Amino acid sequence: MAKRRAQRPAQPADHEAEAWDCGIGHRFANPALLRQALTHRSASRGSGGSNERLEFLGDRVLGLLVAEWLIERHADEPEGDLGKRLAALVARPTLATIADRIGLARHLIVPESETRAGVRALRTVVADAVEAVIAALYLDGGLPAARQFVRTHFAPLVEAMETPPMPAKTRLQEWLAARGVSPPRYRLAQATGPAHAPSFTVVVEANGTDAQAEAGTKRAAEEQAAAKLLAQLEARP
What we know:
single chain; Ribonuclease iii, N-terminal Endonuclease Domain, Chain A; about 10% strand; disordered N terminus
């Protein structure tokens, strides 16, 4: 009995079915790719079987497919505006939103101890897994398979983006400059968590007030803190 329990999670058919369950919509010729894409580094035991390498590849594949799509949709838009759209669409918060929509977190392969610690709920973890899944699709079915996934699940976000978005840090700086106020100051208040699931708390100060945010990367924390501070400043009478 113990032997059956140990082998069951590795059965390819289970993970092939999961491809449909979490909305991937692709029948893998090599189901091991999907398993690797769903394997968090804490479950790989240093064997190299985690989704980190696939995440690296998926980031590049996603960038290519989104850039291709934007060129098609916005034929007359300058490169700078296309870059703003691209940056927003491939950002971790966007990827985490896609993960939520397809229910990816529940399919992640994570040790029980890490599950209890809340790893499945970390936005960086599910965002990275989306990139890994895109890489698995690319390796199994080429660009057409990866393109189908991207254009299916990113479509609502692409269509809703009527104008090129501007990062919150840029909007905050421009708001302050227009009023003759000194630029904002960002400070890393805290960095905690293990290497595979770090957490950064950033504080931003400007015009006599401040705001803070916590995220899985310093850059994301700065962006979220800037958005909070700008909202506070705009709400002032």
